[in-house]
Amino acid sequence: MDKNRQHTSRTEVVRGSLITLRRKCGKPNCRCATGEPHETPALSYSVKGTTGILTLRQEDVPAVKAALARYRKNQQALDQQALAGITALRKRLVAAKARTRGRR
User: Fold this and answer.
1) Domain residue limits, the chain
2) Which residues contact 56 (CB under 8 A, 6 or more apart)?
3) CA diameter of the chain
4) Do the Cβ atoms of 9 and 70 come closer than 8 Å?
5) pTM of the model
6) Residues 15, 71: contact at Cβ < 8 Å?
């Protein structure tokens, strides 16, 4: 793996789900014709209500898992910040309302 790819894989954030695609190739003598289908790792994601699927190489799976984990961690942090913002806004509104009542 070159240095640019390593750097990107450590910093990228990916939203979606890691899935396994299972399918038969159609060859009559293949093991999938009578047994287990072929399995391929893939990333399922949604953009503007449309689902997309990116098939992955097996060696890409650890980097994608790490990027998904970074997304979840960042999303949780953002949710906590948003909740703190709502709490602060609520306190300011209650204080402003109390000041308004005190002026009457």
Assistant:
1) 14-103
2) 40, 41, 42, 43, 64
3) 89
4) no
5) 0.71
6) yes
Residue 59 has pLDDT above 90, yes or no: yes
Structure tokens at 45: 């994601």
Position 104 confidence tier, pLDDT thresholds 50, 70, 90: low
**Helix, strand, coil content of the chain in percent (nearest 5):** 55, 20, 20
Q: Show the beta-strand stretches assigned E in the chain.
A: 17-23, 38-47, 50-55
Please say whether the beta carbons of 55 and 39 come within 8 A.
no
- Residues 15-31: tens digit of each pLDDT: 999 999 999 998 989 98
Which pLDDT score, from 0 to 100, does residue 1 have?
A: 46
> Looking at the predicted structure, is the pLDDT value of residue 71 above 50?
yes
Type of residue found at 93: L
Identify residue 10 by its one-letter amino acid code: R
Instruction: State which amino acid sits at residue 21.
Output: L
